[in-house]
Design goal:
Length: 303
């Protein structure tokens, strides 16, 4: 038997098919407009649209299992630690911008990011992901109270329902639908809402020659071969591709965001210690930290 959803969360939800209001029906959720029924599994609503890409969902579930069981090789552990440092920078910035509390915050594509849950002490923090297993892990292992499974292409939330939206490392999984997704983020935020967006940067110092100058098909084949030869514990999906910080900034402007700021990042995930030293030396330049880190970090507001 499922625990009932918090009324505050139920008020945020909408049918992913037509935006209709959702109400309880037995132990499921039902759209009052189109009458679609949505399962609640383990206390987590599964708000998937009928036309969800099942192959994409299955691939993300495989990637999710790797997130829950991180690599054991020493070089990959070092890389993972650097990756975590970049996330600490991200969440520290979010905490600074939401100081005082009272915000309704959505983490879109949350994975198993536990740092996000700390925002729930003073805010209403909602974890959203395509993969139910990751949300279940957040709920059972780390006490995440508000978890929604669904498709970022059809966000199951009412328009103008959140004060803040956070999104880390999702866009390079959905690069073909960049503007559609950013528009959905815009619609989900209230006027004056804040967007915090971090993702893999096509213009990163040690990767631009691949992601900018190579055809995507060649880039993907080389990356797949590299991870296979290295026997890497993390094998990227074939549809992943880094996004350009400048392209994303333009797209944010086009969908209506203003006050767009590129936030500098210090951490650069690398396995190679020599390359780490090179990056540290050139990262004294502010432009490098803002535009040529492995990740870019953009902050924007909805007018």
């Amino acid at each position: 038997m499922n625990d009932p959803l918090d009324d505050r969360i139920l008020e945020l939800l909408a049918c992913p098919l037509d935006g209709g209001r959702l109400v309880y029906s037995s132990e499921n959720l039902k759209c009052t407009h189109c009458h679609s029924i949505y399962e609640i599994r383990g206390g987590i609503p599964l708000l998937y649209p009928d036309d969800i890409d099942m192959k994409h969902l299955e691939e993300e579930e495989k990637l999710g299992s790797l997130m829950e069981d991180p690599p054991a090789l020493p070089k990959e552990r070092s890389y993972q630690q650097q990756w975590e440092l970049s996330k600490q920078e991200f969440w520290s910035f979010v905490e600074e911008k939401t100081r005082g509390g009272g915000y309704t915050i959505l983490n879109a594509g949350c994975g198993i990011d536990r740092r996000f849950l700390e925002l729930g002490d003073k805010n209403t923090a909602v974890a959203f992901d395509l993969t139910h297993s990751l949300l279940s892990s957040l709920r059972s292992n780390y006490g995440s109270p508000h978890n929604i499974a669904g498709d970022v292409h059809r966000l199951p939330f009412r328009h103008e329902s959140f004060d803040c939206l956070c999104c880390i490392d999702l866009l390079h999984h959905e690069t073909e639908d960049l503007r559609l997704i950013l528009r959905s983020f815009y619609d989900t935020l209230r006027p004056g809402g804040k967007l915090f967006l971090e993702d893999v940067n096509a213009w990163g110092v040690f990767q631009f020659w691949k992601s900018i100058f190579l055809p995507r098909s060649a880039h993907r084949k080389l990356r797949s071969s590299y991870h296979r030869l290295k026997r890497s514990g993390i094998q990227p999906a074939g549809y992943e591709f880094p996004t350009s910080v400048w392209k994303v900034k333009r797209a944010l402007e086009e969908v209506g965001f203003r006050m767009i700021e590129t936030v500098p990042l210090e951490s650069y995930p690398l396995r190679n210690s020599f390359l780490k030293r090179i990056y540290r030396s050139i990262a004294a330049i502010d432009r490098v930290r803002r535009y040529h880190n492995f990740h870019y970090f953009l902050f924007a507001e909805k007018p």
